[in-house]
Amino acid sequence: WSQEHMTNNYYTINFWYNQNVKYTWVSNDITLREMQEIKKNTKAKLMVTLFGYLPIFTSKRNLVKNYLKTFDLQDESQINYMEKEGKIYPLVDQNGTVVYTDFILDGLKEKLLLDYDYIVLNSFLIDDDKFSKVVDIFNNVNEKNKDILNEQLNDLFDNLKKGFFYQETVYKVK
Question: Whole-prediction pTM value?
Answer without folding.
Answer: 0.89
